[in-house]
Every structure is written in C-alpha cells, then in structure tokens.
C-alpha cells in the first residue's frame, strides 16, 4: 500500500536550525505533536510552538555531555515498528508511533575543515542523528525522514495541502536522500580517520545521471553523472541548442574548455579527437577564431570549439552557415563559451545539428585528477604549473617574446604525448601553427607539426608564387617549436632546422642534452630549457 | 593517553557467525563477561561459553520481529560515555561500561544480489548494528569495535598475550575499519534505493594507497589506490624486480595488458605513450616477441611490454641485455606477464632498470569504464565486442582469413582515435605491421600506418636490392588495413592503394560510403564493413 501518512507525531533534532520553525509550525497547525531535544526545543518554543521534551518520551535524561540524547528503545521503536504487523506488540510495550524525524547531523566536515584537534573532531561524529535518520528511512513506508532544510518549503506546502499528510512518493524520495546523507557522512568520517592514521583513502560519489544515447561507440551504453557536493562540475553545463551531447562530445568539450581556461585575452580552441588542432589568443574574437581555424582547416570540420569570452555574432559568422554554396559552410559539432550574444545565438540556432553550450571554462580547473583503471585509481595533482625556469642553453639567443613562449607551453600541455607544438605571433595574435601528437616516436610528432605548419603557411600566402618560399622561411624563423618532453636525440633538431625553425623550447634533462645543444649551435638554432615536462597520455 | 584497555565486558551480535567462538572464548578465559543477542548467544552457549542475554542489560525485550534488539539507552550509553569525564554520571545512571562490540551487519549486498523483493531488501537494512558499531568506533579511546571475522585470530593472540587487553593502535585500526564498513554499507543502500527509484548513482571507494614518486610529470604528486572489494585490481600486480613503477608505467602497463588479454595464442604487446606500436600473436613466444618488436623497432626502446603466457628465457634473450656491444642491448621499461620461468627471471633480474610485473592480463577485463572530468563522471560499458557483422561491399572479395581480420580489429581497438592498423599474417603469426593513431585527421593516421609498414618491410627484406620493391608489394597485398571508424572521403582508399593495400576493413556508415566503395572498385581493393566502430580517446 502506497498511501499517504498523516504526521501526528514528529521528532525534531537539528544541528542546522535554519528554517526549522516553519516546518514545525505547519505540522503543529495540522495537529501534530512536536517532540524535541535541547537546542532545537528552545528555538521552536521561542517561535511559539508547543514542544514535548524528548526525555518525557524516552524516560531517560540527556546524558554524557550530549552524547546521549535520542537513542533509546522508545524512540527507535517508535520509528521502526511495522504499523501493521507490530501494532499489538507496540501497544503492549507502550510504544506510540513517531511519523516524522527532522534531523541534520553534526557538521563533521565543516569542523574538520576548520582544522580542529582530534578530540574535537571525534566529538563531532554524530551517533544519535544517523541512528534516528536510518531507522526512519528504513521504515519510510510509515515514516517521513527530513534531513535537508532545503526541503522544508515543499514539505510545508504538501502538509498544508493534504491536512498534514505526506505521500508515499515524498517519503520514498526523502528516504533516498537520507541514506545518501548517511553514506556521505560516514564516507567523510572514514576518509578523515584514515587520513589521521596517515592512510590516503578516496571516496567518490556521483548522481543526477543523464542517460546518453550511447558511449564512445554505438554498442556501448553510457551515462553522465555529477559529483555530489562538487562546487563546480562540467555536468552543470547549460545546453542552449541542438541535439543532445554525445559521450565523445563531452570528452572533447572538456578538452576544449581546458585549452582556453588559462588564457586571459580572447581565445579559441578547436578540438578534434581530444587534441587541439587549432588554438589562438588575441584581441579581436573573429580574428582569433579565424587563426585558430587556420591551424588545421580540414580537421576543424566536425570539431568541438570553446571560447573563453562571450561569443559575438560577427565571430561565428565566419562559419558561413548561410552560404548558398554549401561547400563554404563550416560544420562544427559543438560551440561552448561562458556566454553568447543574443544575435550570435539567433544566428547559430538556425542550424539544428550544431550544439551550443554555456559554461565558464575556468570551472574545469581541478586540483586533482582521477584515472580509474581496472579496479584501481591513479590520483594525481593536476598539471597546473606552466613554467619553472627559462634558460637559453645555446650560443644563439631567441628573439621570441615570453608571451609566445608561454602560449607554446600551454598549447603543448594540451596535446597527447609525444607532443610538438609550433606556435607563432602574427600581428599580436598568438597562434598554434601546427601540432603533432599521440605518437610513439617524437620524430613523428615533430614531422607532423612542421608539415602542418608549412602547409598552413603555404595556404595563407596570397602573393606571387615566386615569393612563397621566402614568406614561409620568414614565418618559420619567427615561430617557436615546443616539445612536451626532452629530445632523446639530435634528430628532432635537424628536422626542425630543415623546416627553417630558429627557436626550440623543451624541458631538457636527457642524457644526450649536450649533443642536442651542439646540434642547435651547429644549425644556428636557439634552444630554451624550461625544466618542466608536460606529458599527457 | 594511548593506553591499553582490558576488555571486561563485550557485546556480541553478529550476522556472519564464522569463527566467533574463538574470540569469545579468548575473552572469557581472560575473565570478560559476554553479552549477546539471540542467534549469536545460541552459537556461543553451544560452544560452552557463558553468555548474558542482552535483555538483562537493556531491560527491554527483543521486539518487532528483531528490528529492535540492541538499541537502548543502556547499551549505547555503555559504549559511548567518556570513561574519565562521565564516570560519575554513568555510575549514577547505573551504566556499566562495555569495552568491546563484535558485530557484523545484515548482509544487505548478498541479499540484494539474490534479487529479493523490495520488502525483503528493506528488512535487510541493519539499524542496530551500525548504531553499536558507530558508537563503539566513536569511543575507540576506550572501546574496541570488531567488524571483520578475519581480524579474530590476531585479536585472540593479542588478548592472550596481554591479559585480555587491546592496545590503542589496535583499537584505532579497528575504528577506521568500522567507519569504512558503515560508509560502504550505507553507500550500498543509497545506491540500491536510488536504483529502485530508477535513478543511477555511483559510489566508488579506494584505499591501500601507494605513494608514487610523482605523477605524469615530476611536478605532480601521485598515488595508486585499490578499489575496495574489487575482486580483481591492477593494484594487485606482483612486483618482481626493479625500480618502483612510475605513474606513466602503470598507465602503459594497463594498456599493454589490455592489448593481449583477449588473444588466445601466445601474444605480446609493446606499448609506447599508451598505444601499442607492436602487437603479435602466434605459437612460438620468441618469434612472437620478435615480430611484435619489428612493428616499430625504434619506438620499442623504452617501451612497456605485456605477454599473455608465462615468459620463457629464450623469449627475453631477444633483448640481448648481456651483449658486449651496448648498442645491441634493447632497453625496455617494464615486462608484465601472468608468470615467468625462473630462468627468465634470473636473466632479466641482472638489469636493475628493468621492472618485472606478474599479472594475469584477463584480470584487467572490466564491464564498465569510468572517466572523471571536472566534477563529473562519464560511465560506459566497456568496448568488449569485436565483430557485429562482416560484409564485403566491393566487387572484389578479400582473400584474407577471418583470424587476421579479427586480429586487425583487436589491434585498432587498442589505438587512440583516429586509428589505422595494418596487420598481416606471416607464417601463421598475426602481426601489427604498422599503425597510425591519435590524429585529428584520418588521412594522417593512414599515412603514418602505411609508411611505418613500408619501412618495416624494407628493413625485413634480406634479399637482393632489385627484389625489394617486389617483396614489399607482395606483403602489402596480403596485409589488411583496418580503420577504427568510417572513411569520410575516398582519399584514404587512394592512399592505401598507392601503398599496394588490397583489403580494407572499416565499420562503414558514412554518407559517402558509396563513393568510398566506388573508389575501391576502381582500384581493385576489397572492402569489408563490420558495422562496429571502435573509437578510443
């Protein structure tokens, strides 16, 4: 039977007392008896609500500095007995049902974050609260368990609309919330106690699952959940337009946001298969978008794009979505930004296959990263450091600015290892000119990045054919080649030189650094060591 | 004060009764009073141990079909009161201390896995047990809380060696275990209740943390943990020799094991930057190793290697670790296998920078995969399906065997997208001849895989120079090019043809399939559609 239950007797014992009077008043007005413990009782009585002291029900005093307040045969029986099967037994034992528990627990987490001493921390482990809450939750068929002040307004409404009764659905929902609360609570305690003993343990909880159409591939099922209590989550993204996001969209969206989150001027990242194939930072957003796109104008089709500033209509008109010649239309999968101008939305919404997402890129910043592999967890602090030191190790000094160098490091950090990024400054715009990534051999990545760069320069040159190679040479000389890890051999330097590169940035640290530096000196290349590797697998 | 506590009064109430007599006897022999509930009491009395019925302590009967057995002001006070501050108050209230709780909880998980009805599931939510356990744990300064039968033998020893007392360290350890138990218990309940309501929630817990030297890079801290209660875990790997595994070693080790786990004959995978650059399956392990190595003999240096069968000495002698000419020595980072012949270990152990790991590859098989991104979780079923259908869509039929085709699909599934694998059969060995992966553009991957294949064939040919191209042509014609996703344009087919490929396998499903197939027909290529994409990001 899934019927409503009239709340005739309610037990209040709350640590967080906010808003508790309103709920008690609604119950009282519907003829409910309120039982309460010390502090809560004072608050309710001050609000003019008659309260029965809990010791009148238990027959026991509040004892041991508050460690014993509610736990008793009387209270837990009143919560737990089966109103049908056990009715006679309850009557014989003088147990009168309690139909509602309003309880929230000692603030263990807050107290812990205050850095209190161990004894105080232990004192803030609630025993009576979870007992009541769990007992009431187990017997939710007859009992309502209220653990979150945010639920009070809805409950007040439901009570007033139903003569002081609550529905089965409400009680079921409250029960789920209660067990999730006690699970979270003991997770915190267990983790804190392990920590005190010098043992790291990790407990993660996720809910609000959205079912995705499928996973990485159509034969895989997939779900997208939010981490409980996380202040920020990618799950909070605001979906403005289009078909629902796919699993791969979400993965790439994260990478896109991650790529622009640390850039301060207007920036745009273009992601394909989880790597940025375009990245640019500068002043004019349209220009930034065009230069990001030019990083790999073929792969950019079907990409996932993120901006770090409000997107203007003039920016996205670069997609030419209305072009009569369909070949001129640039199809992309997702555009994400902290905001969109209404005219930009209007323009983009005309295209149903384009997904628009509002999300602040900075909110993907994380202190820790988690990788779950076959029943194990790799936990690491995130790679949030960009530059440790900067040392020119060659005879030649580089002429490139620090801002370009930093941009190059940021670009290469986003690429899967082995990673090479070629970046340049063009009229105060910082641009990823070409990238190579995900290769078992660094030489592959170097070749891919340089070939891409050369191809892009070729396409960009609009002058006379005879001048093209000269233009490419000039641009390559102003560019910087950045490597995510050290060069194991001088071969990468030779390849870079063959494409006209004059500045190379890498962490250094190889046993063959000397021969790598010598090769640079021989070929007139400036090399900067950063001391900081940026592997990403 | 971190002193020992003599256990003078213990409360037993266990659901799992295994081994409980031994602990009770050790206590009894040291003069401890045993209090117990119904079922546990019978077991102990049968074993000749005198037991006080709990109702004599509480003054209450066992009530409501067992829902109320232990919860009472008397029991929880006896567990919770501060033996120093609250001693007088306890005496006045007639509360005598209980120094130990032995309790394990109703088997909620087991009952749930039996698929019982909802009411039975609810009945198996333990209320009294967690109350006692949590109260005893909170007061661990004076009370020992025993929740795991596996701890009984050590406790018996400690009690016998210390006149029935337990140390602070033991009580602290038991307390941590207790809160981890109640956290797990409520996590299960919360998840099950959410599931009943049609809401997916996920709770993951990890412990046994090992501190790694650093994370993906030296400026990142990292830890390696085991999932609690997982039947298998990569964390269980048996480390036989060498420097400790690094973060990146573990990530690559997983990929190496994953690449060989589904191969039935002897197999070897060589991983570099998380992608297999070598993979082979066949009969003779040495031959398998050599052919895997030949997939990318340059990148294989510094790789992570997995075998799916016991490793023989003759196999690893291929590394020539004792070669006088140091250039002939093949340095690799990690070798993992389900087992090693003692002679193989003896040979490998001479090299201190080589790490040896014993682990059964099949144990990395997972039903579900988790990806945690910025406060969110992507959960998907793993890509464990290899072939849905097999349809030749071209005029030409392929002449390659199914086993090669399946091997190619398995290879490409392990590679980061976009992925292309070129595989061939050589004297009944299945070999990854070349791969391209991690590229924003499929054409890049196709070129990388074919160029690698051609290079490998060139190196392998030992005949007269004039015959080399002919040999390469013959081998390419027998090889299969496998793509993890459909070809968006016919350009990949043209590139494949230019390298002499005659068989292409891909899922199909592009809007331009027709023009791709036409291009195959025009170029004399057989194309097989599988209907199954294998993206991996």
Automatic annotation (TrEMBL), chains A, B:
Pathway: Purine metabolism; IMP biosynthesis via de novo pathway; IMP from 5-formamido-1-(5-phospho-D-ribosyl)imidazole-4-carboxamide: step 1/1; Purine metabolism; IMP biosynthesis via de novo pathway; 5-formamido-1-(5-phospho-D-ribosyl)imidazole-4-carboxamide from 5-amino-1-(5-phospho-D-ribosyl)imidazole-4-carboxamide (10-formyl THF route): step 1/1. Residues 1-147 form the MGS-like domain. The IMP cyclohydrolase activity resides in the N-terminal region. One of its GO terms (molecular function) is IMP cyclohydrolase activity. Keywords: Hydrolase, Multifunctional enzyme, Purine biosynthesis, Transferase. One of its GO terms (cellular component) is cytosol. It catalyses: IMP + H2O = 5-formamido-1-(5-phospho-D-ribosyl)imidazole-4-carboxamide; (6R)-10-formyltetrahydrofolate + 5-amino-1-(5-phospho-beta-D-ribosyl)imidazole-4-carboxamide = 5-formamido-1-(5-phospho-D-ribosyl)imidazole-4-carboxamide + (6S)-5,6,7,8-tetrahydrofolate. One of its GO terms (biological process) is 'de novo' IMP biosynthetic process. Pfam families: AICARFT_IMPCHas (PF01808), MGS (PF02142). This is Bifunctional purine biosynthesis protein PurH. It comes from the Bacteria. Belongs to the PurH family. SUPFAM superfamilies: Cytidine deaminase-like, Methylglyoxal synthase-like. Its EC number is 2.1.2.3, 3.5.4.10.
């Amino acid at each position: 039977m899934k019927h409503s239950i009239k709340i005739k007797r309610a037990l209040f014992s709350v640590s967080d007392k906010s808003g508790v009077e309103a709920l008690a008043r609604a119950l009282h007005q519907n003829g409910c008896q309120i039982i309460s413990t010390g502090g809560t009782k004072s608050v309710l009585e001050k609000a003019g609500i008659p309260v029965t002291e809990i010791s009148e029900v238990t027959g026991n005093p509040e004892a041991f500095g508050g460690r014993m307040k509610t736990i008793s045969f009387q209270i837990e029986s009143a919560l737990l007995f089966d109103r049908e099967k056990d009715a006679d037994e309850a009557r014989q034992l003088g147990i009168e049902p309690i139909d509602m528990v309003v309880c929230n627990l000692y603030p263990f987490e807050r107290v812990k974050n205050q850095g209190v001493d161990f004894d105080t921390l232990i004192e803030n482990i609630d025993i009576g609260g979870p007992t009541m809450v769990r007992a009431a939750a187990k017997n939710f068929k007859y009992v309502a368990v209220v653990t979150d002040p945010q639920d009070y307004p809805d409950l007040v409404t439901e009570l007033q609309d139903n003569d002081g009764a609550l529905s089965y659905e409400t009680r079921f929902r409250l029960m789920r919330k209660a067990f999730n609360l006690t699970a979270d609570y003991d997770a915190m305690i267990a983790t804190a106690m392990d920590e005190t003993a010098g043992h790291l343990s990790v407990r993660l909880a996720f809910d609000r699952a959205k079912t995705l159409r499928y996973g990485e591939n159509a034969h895989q099922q997939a779900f997208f959940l939010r981490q409980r209590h996380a202040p920020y989550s990618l799950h909070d993204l605001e979906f403005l337009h289009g078909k629902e996001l796919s699993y791969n969209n979400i993965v790439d969206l994260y990478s896109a946001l991650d790529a622009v989150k640390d850039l301060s001027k207007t920036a745009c990242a273009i992601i394909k298969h989880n790597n940025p194939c375009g990245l640019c930072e500068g002043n004019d957003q349209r220009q930034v978008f065009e230069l990001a796109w030019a990083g790999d104008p073929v792969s950019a089709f079907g990409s996932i794009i993120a901006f770090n500033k409000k997107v203007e209509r003039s920016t996205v008109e670069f997609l030419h979505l209305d072009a009569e010649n369909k070949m001129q239309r640039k199809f992309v999968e997702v555009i994400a930004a902290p905001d969109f101008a209404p005219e930009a939305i209007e323009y983009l919404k005309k295209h149903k296959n384009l997904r628009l997402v509002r999300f602040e890129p900075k909110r993907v910043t994380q202190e820790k990263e988690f990788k779950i592999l076959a029943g194990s967890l790799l936990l690491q602090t995130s790679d949030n450091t960009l530059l440790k030191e900067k040392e020119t190790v060659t005879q030649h000094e580089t002429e490139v600015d620090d801002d370009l160098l930093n941009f190059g490091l940021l670009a290469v950090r986003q690429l899967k290892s082995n990673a090479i990024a070629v970046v340049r400054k063009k009229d105060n715009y910082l641009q990823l000119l070409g990238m190579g990534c995900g290769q078992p051999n660094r030489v592959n990545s170097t070749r891919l990045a340089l070939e891409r760069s050369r191809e892009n320069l070729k396409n960009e040159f609009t002058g006379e054919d005879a001048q093209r190679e000269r233009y490419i040479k000039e641009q390559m000389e102003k560019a910087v080649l950045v490597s995510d890890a050290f060069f194991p051999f001088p071969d990468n330097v030779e390849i870079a030189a063959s494409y006209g590169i004059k500045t190379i940035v890498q962490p250094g640290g190889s046993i063959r650094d000397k021969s790598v530096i010598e090769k640079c000196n021989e070929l007139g290349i400036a090399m900067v060591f950063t001391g900081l590797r940026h592997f990403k697998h």
